[in-house]
Every structure is written in structure tokens, then in C-alpha cells.
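Q: I have two molecules that I believe assemble together. Could you output C-alpha cells for the complex as a whole instead of separate predictions?
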Amino acid sequence: MKRIALALTLALVVTPAWAKKKPKEAPAPAPVPAAPVDPEAWRATPPGPGPERAWTAPVAQVVTLSNGIPVYVVPNPAFPLVSVRLHVGAGRVANPAGKAGLASLTADLLDEGTSTRTASKIASEASGLGAVLTTAGGDESATVSLDALGGDALGPALDLMADVTLRPAFAKAEFARVQAETLAAIEEAKAEPRDAAVRTFLSQLYGAAHPYGTPAIGTTASVKALKVEDVKKLYQGLYHAGNAAFVVSGALTPEEAKTLLDARFGKWAKGAQVPAPAAVAAAPIKTRVVFVEQPGAVQSVLRIGTVGLPRTSPDYPAATLTATHTAGMFSSRINMNLREEKGWSYGAYGAFTDSRDGGVFSVRTSVQADKTAPAVAEVLKELASAAKTPATAADLTVARDNILKSLPGYFETNEATANAFLEVPRFGLGPDSFVATAKAVGAVTPAEAGAAAARWFDPARQLVVVVGPKSVTVDDGKGGTTTVDVVKSLQDLGYEFVAL
Amino acid sequence: MRKTLLLALPLALALPAVAGTPAPELKFEKYELPNGLEVILSEDRRLPLVSVNLWYHVGGKDEVPGRSGFAHLFEHIMFQGSKNVPEDRFFPMLEAAGAPLVNGTTDFDRTNYFETVPSNQLELALWLESDRMGWLLDTLTQERLDNQKAVVRKERQQSIENVPYGSAEEQFFKALFPAPHPYNGVVIGSHLDLEAATLEDVKGFFRTFYPPNNATLAIVGDYDPATIKAMVDRYFGSIPKGAEPAPTKLPPVAHTKETRLALTDEVELAKVFFGWVGPRSFEPGDAELTLAAEVLAGTKSSRLHEALVLKQQVAAEVKAYQYPLQAGSVFVVEVQGRPGQTPDALEKAAWPIIEGLRTTPPSAEELDRAKRSWQAETVRQLQSLGGFGGRADLLNYYNHHLGDPGYLPKDVARIEAVTPAAVQKALTDVVKVDSRVVVHVSPVGGAK
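A: Yes, here they are, computed for all two components at once.
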């Protein structure tokens, strides 16, 4: 391809050939007098890429507050906007045993009232400043997010961010209300088949005792048992300067970011270092099918996959590249098979989650209910084929281009940029994590990709979760109907079968 | 691919008015090719990316009864290949090029197609878009049509039928625009209509509504201003102009009595939808209702959230939005209950708050907060180049509704000029008991 030869040229001064002269007509076929030359014949050849413009992913600039909190800054003067993310190492991996949902509830309560502001006042002040302030608990992080206008409106917005972070009231009444809202959200999620599939997949893969085995929001039983004292204790233990980091993207310099944040967070006490809970390995699995009934559903939701790998693993680039090739693109076999060839699904995609300890690789799809078992078989067949037949160098080039050339898309907005760089404190990566990962993905060899495929796509080690109807009645194509026994057809696949 | 019906965030659009914040300029150039294709160019070279964003001025409104879902069906067919783009190569070519965004959306009034690509692949995007504009039907076979009908039925199952409250939303919109209004039915169409679509129907629809003179191409991002026009002309200039499609008549919708629906669904929590058909997009009342939605449910300090979620604690979630459309905007309030609540109880709790905005108009401060939120959100959206509400979409949005891609400063002024009394008047005109559509959704088996 031309790409390699042109990669070193700065693109924008080169005038493409067609702009200089009239396009050449396609070579005329053997002279058949009656056939006029199609003036549009040139369209038969797709245009190749133009010279590539040199670009490297941003590297965050690091400044440090007086109490040691690192601040990763990606300046972007294009718009009068600033996005700030505070990472606190207080995600669900920090939940004490039996207290699933605690870290998430704690994060949710931060902006529900402080020593000087009610929940409503926090929200009204933020909107009056054109700012959006949210708090959320994830796997590794509790995150306080601020998307604010730059300039004079930024200071008051940061005051609000500091207030919810440093002085949450954790009042009993607010705790009770948010606890009830959380329970309602858990109820609501039960009606959402995709949510049920994710929950089942995680608990089956990791086991209920593992922090990854229960969703961050918790379960009805675990959330009901939580007390406001639990929240206060988790906050006191984990929310401190020694367990925090900022990411900032927008219209300000690193020095300005440091000054603004130091004035508000510089006196936050450092607290005792809490050792990160040791990663608990998930037990290896043998392929089994776990069925959750969704009565009357017209589709079955499928999750098929296995335990993933830490974001910091040296195998991460090869695993990501091979997953992109096998399952991450529209043109990946799994999607082409289920969507385009069989027409059973609106789409089927697979990927690794980014995770500190392991996460998952999973293929996600919804398929018409009568094709549930055949679709499971096809996905396993495609995984088996990927595990057995390594991707060629050309295949990997497509997947690599898909990852690397779309990388600028992560940095179109301050929100996306700040969210992307949260991976630095979350997983303990360097401020050049995007440059480093791009380089590593670029260097993956076909042998490394093949080894990753053999390891993660092994059809004997996949967990299959199905959320769907036990049986479904469909047209038989002859004017009548026929009933498909979904459960039986899944059992007939020959793997261990569990109905929950 | 998405359909925007019901999911559509009414594009919120404007500039910050907080003191000291400079307004970003939205520079662009608009011109027209001899074949009637409108072109909007806006240069931005921060990243090596460029967005191609093509709006066809055809939507669910242009479908004839019994043939719902055509515009959306095309959204699928358009990605299947055309004369020079082999079958199933559209996405793969863009994936291999490293395009961060490729999609299309269909709405009542318009359909759009967009891709953000590395800037050295701009020609690829223009080649793909021009080939399907000019030569789609050359390769549209019965088999391809049947295949895409099947995919759309899957999408319908996945996004409506297998989603909590999905079917209720569908019924809600049908009730807002009763047959034979062109908006009746959902953008995605019904199973029956999709099944009935013949190859000739589909080809006729394309010939009528997809010529260059019924489309607008916006290109935003990193392109070479010295060569861009020649490039556009090369790919689009020779596509023949079509007959001007006769504009579909969009009669105003006047509900003269209340419409109520009570549905049960496989859900866990009760939910109530309130809806009204109001002024056409950008007509008086549209801006007022946009801000009224923000005052009612925009933030945790909004009236409905404060009353129902924080104080009475009967609702788990409240939502309000103004959805501007050419035949008449839709003003919607949604209240989702806490466990154990019934739709009746939710309606009783919510209605006095909604009505209260009419009897007690927003304070100057409430309205100011709503304006600040709206304006800041608009600037945030301007950051992204392309689809789903980014800059190219915004230029096309204003162009579609008003013929002026540069309407942004006027829109800012329009929102800024809204007074509490004007909000009150818009609510008095639109948000009435005898013109409302109320949909109750109860969990199967009663409130849990």
C-alpha cells in the first residue's frame, strides 16, 4: 500500500492528482464501436488513502498538588470548556466482604448534600454555572466528574466539586432515600434482559464472593443491609489525598490547573495508605450453558466469553488486537455470520473490558429466540476457528488500522479525553499510556496474536449465558406455526447445562 | 444503525452567555452544485479527522400508509453496497481505514448518514457516499432487500419489543399523531409493512426522495480548503438531478380531547408518559417549551425531581423534553415510579407540578439556570465534529429546518429572549388536560 511510503510526508501540502488534471477515463475495453465509454467507469476503483498527516496521541502533563495528589492535564484551548475528573481508589474492588454496593452507594451520596448545601442546592448552583457535576462508583474508581465552562465560571464550579468531595454530609434521610432509589434501580434492571445477562455472566464467571462477581450497584439483599455507618467508614478509610488523582482536559494550562485545584484540594489530608485488595483469580471454567428465563421474550440475549486479563498485562496489546480482529468489528466473522449470513441478529460484537485485575472477554448479542441454540453453536464455532487458525498478517493489519487510525477520535471532546486518561490513575499507567499502547499494538506479531486467540477463544473454556424464553412459537413458513423448545435445543448442544 | 425516534435528544444548541466566556465561532461556507446538492464546509484542523455528514430531507413523514419504515429501511440498504461498492464492504472499508464513527439515523423529518474518518481517507468517504447516492439501485436485488428486511425486524425486536417500556413508547407516539397523520407509526415501521414492501416500492421511494437536490452534504474537520471543492465536485457533480419531490403535507395536529392508554408490560416499575403536540420547530413556543422541560426535570433541583424524587419519594426518575418537529413539536414528561407505586398515584403526584408551572411561572432565577444549562450543553456538543449532534449535524440541522446553517447565534438569542411570562403562555397554549396523551404502564401482575 501507498500508506507506508507516504507516512513520513506531511500530507496537507500535497495536491492529489485528480485536482491537477482531469480524471483519466478507465482504459477502454477492446473496441466495440456500439458501446460508449462509461464516463463513470473510474468509480470502479476505490480511492486509496492520501498522505497521512503525522499525529501522535496526547501525553498528559503531570503537576502535583501540595499534598501530593497527581494531576494529569491535557490542555485544549479550542473551546471555553474544562472537564475535570477526580479518581478515588474506592470502586467496587474495595467493597468489604458481604457489602456489595457499598462503594457505589458511597459515591452516589457525595452530591446528595454537604455540610453547607442540600442536594438540590448543589444541582441548582451547578446548572446556574452551566456545569454538570456527577459522582459514580465503578470497578476500580469512585469518580467525581465536572464538565464546566472555562474562565470565570470555573472557580465556582470547582468549589462545588470540592464541597461534595471533601464535605459530604451523609445525612440519614439522604442515605435512606438514595438506598431506596438504588433498590428501585436494581428492581428496574431485573426487567432489562441485557442487564440480567451481564449480572449472571459476572456471578457465574467470578463467583458471588469475588468483587467482580456482583454488579457495582449491589444486590437487593446486600443494599438493604447497608447502614449509613458503613458509608462513613468506607469514606473515611478511602477518600483521602493519598488515594486520589485528577485528570483535567480543556482551556487551561497545567499551572492554572494546579493553582485552581491546590486552592481547593491542597489541604486534603493524606490518610493511611490502604493496600489494594489482592486480585482473586477466578476459577478456570469448562464450557457450560447457563439459562435465565425471560418469559415471552422475542429475543434471547447471549453473553459468551471468559475471564479477561489485567490492563497492565504484557499480553494486553495482543489480546486487544486479536479480539478486534475476531469479534470487534462489523466485518468480524461473528457479526458477519449472525447478522449478514444468517440474519438472526442485529449485531454481534466481542471485546475485553479494561480492568485492574482481570475483567472479561465476552461476545454480546441478541438473537431471535427460535435460533438461540444455533446462534450459540455458531459463536462457539467462530471462536474455535479463531483459536485454531491464527489471523494472517493482513488480517491483523486491518484490525491494527482500525484501532490505531481511529485513536484521534478519543480526543475530540474534553469529556472523552478526560475519561480516556482516567485509565492512568485507575490502572497505574504512565501519562503517555496512549502513545505506549499504540506502539505496543503496532508491534504485536502474528504469533503473539495467535497465542492470545488460542488462550482466550478456546471453545472448551467459554461461559455461555442465555436470557430468553423457554420456548417460542414462530411461523413454520408454510402458513402455520411451530413451537421451538429453546431449553431442550440448548441442552442438545451437549455442554453442561444449568437453568437458574 | 439507530433510529432517532424517541431516543432523539432534541438537539440543544447554543453558546455560553456566562460573563467572560468567549463564544466559539462556527465558521462555514454553503454553496450548491448544479445538480442541486447543497454543500456546507467548515474547517477544523485540530485533529487529523474529518466528518462527512449527509442529510436527506426525507423521513418517516414521507412514507405512505401501509409502507411505514421505508426511510429507515433505506438506512440499512444504504450500507449494503451500491454499483461500485461490493456487497457488505461499506463498513469493512471504513473500519480498515480507522473511521472512529460510522452511522446513520432516521427521524420523522429527515434521515442522515455520517462517518468521521482519518483526514487522509476523506476521498474514501466521499466515494462511498456518492456511489450510494447515484448508483444504489444498480445492485439492489430482491435478495438484498429481503436480507435487510430481516435485519430491520431484528433491530425492531432488539430496540423496541425486547426493551422495557419500548412498546409503550411506540403506542404513545402513535396516539400523539393519530392516523392518517404522516407521523403515525414509528420510524422503524411495522413488521407487516416491512413484509409487504416490494422491490418496486422501495426503488420508487429511492428515486423520489434521494436525488442530490433533496440532500445536503456537510464536511467538517481537517480538509484542504484549496482542493475540497474540486473533490466534492468530482464525486458528486455528475450525479443527475432528480425531479423535485413534492413536499409532503404536514397537517397540524389538534387534540380536542384527552387520550388515555393503560398498558401492561414486562417491567418491574410503573411509568406514566404525558405528551402534547405543540408548535412546529422554531415557531413561537418552541424555545419556551424547551426551557420549560429543563425547569421541570433538567436537574436534581428541577421542580419534578425535587417534588417527586427528593420530597415525596414516589418516583425513581423523572424526565421532560421538547422534541421539535416540522409538523408540530412534542412536549413529553415521563415519570417512573419507585417500587410499589401505581401509575394512578404517579399521575396524581406529577400533574399538579406540571400544571403548577402554568400557574406559577418559573422565577427569573429558575429560567436563567435553564438557559445556562442549555447553552453550555450546546457548546459541549460543538466539540465533536460529526454525527449524533456534533458540529456537522448542527449545521445540517439548522439548514434543514431553517435553510440557514449559521442560525446558531440567532438560536442563542432566541433562547436568551425567553421570559417567564412567555413560558407561562406556551404552557397555557399547549399543556392542557383536554389535549394531552397519557399512557400508563403497569408491570405484568400489578405493582410490585
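A: One point stands out. The domain at 288-499 of chain A is CATH 3.30.830.10 (Cytochrome Bc1 Complex; Chain A, domain 1).
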